[in-house]
Description:
This protein has helices spanning about 10-100, 105-115, 130-185, 210-230, 230-315, 330-405, 410-415.
Amino acid sequence: xxxxxxxxxxxxxxxxxxxxxxxxxxxxxxxxxxxxxxxxxxxxxxxxxxxxxxxxxxxxxxxxxxxxxxxxxxxxxxxxxxxxxxxxxxxxxxxxxxxxxxxxxxxxxxxxxxxxxxxxxxxxxxxxxxxxxxxxxxxxxxxxxxxxxxxxxxxxxxxxxxxxxxxxxxxxxxxxxxxxxxxxxxxxxxxxxxxxxxxxxxxxxxxxxxxxxxxxxxxxxxxxxxxxxxxxxxxxxxxxxxxxxxxxxxxxxxxxxxxxxxxxxxxxxxxxxxxxxxxxxxxxxxxxxxxxxxxxxxxxxxxxxxxxxxxxxxxxxxxxxxxxxxxxxxxxxxxxxxxxxxxxxxxxxxxxxxxxxxxxxxxxxxxxxxxxxxxxxxxxxxxxxxxxxxxxxxxxxxxxxxxxxxxxxxxxxxxxxxxxxxxxx
Length: 425
């Protein structure tokens, strides 16, 4: 007996088995294809991910090297900028010290000029010391004006350099921060603890710029510092030249002024000695002329008595008896004697008058010589005082040079190395 179910044909059974086998094979093939494609996808994504990570890391390393390169370039420029600022500040300080050091010479020259204005009227002349003192005063004022202008330009340059230094310093700090940040990113890996998903990592940050613009900015910052450093050395040299030139001009003019004062003192002393000699000779001449006037007066007095004698004889002989009155030889000789004596007295009187007039002229001229001697003494005192006051400038400068050590670094090296200098040098 058969079971009461539907029976299949053997061909249908075989067809069903074949269909299941084919489906199983198809499913296994699909699974194999899926596994193979998954494995290939995993390998490709791993490789691409690793290469992407490697490339980005290498890009960060290259970026760090580029940042370090630009930072070193700008740091070198910044170092030069620092040195130039310090050198310019020192040179400006030296120029200001030179400017301050010319305040007292200006007051001394004005004092010397006022002292020489105290000369008396006969000695107040437009001589060489006046011209040289005015030239020295003009040089001092011109030096002060030039030094003020140079210091003003140096101050303005220092302001610009300070601004550039601030910008360069900020640029270096930014590059250092960026380099530290990129170095920290290079040090990260997939196992780091401080990594996470971000809301929008692909966004462009605000105020960002292109790479070309960044390179142009770095070049511009370096060029800005180079442009400011281009004329800094020229300004320092101009300050040094102006300071040295002003000192040399002032020293040369100071020597000319002192030479003219010494020459003026020498000429005044020479004139004073000449006047003293003239005064001595005038005194001798006055004494001799006084003695001569006394001798002339004595001679006139003696001739007057002789004239009185002759006139008395003539007058007495005129009282003779009328019969005895005659023009005899004694009368003729007495008349000639009286006439001759009168002529002698007249000549002596004229000579005495001339001698007294000459005596008065000598006395008046001696008084003028005495007055001029007093003027010369006063002028000598004034010029000597002016010269001594002017020489104090050289003494102060010598003291400054004596206290100034021109080779401080050499002395420091000798002290550090404990080397004793050769006493023969």
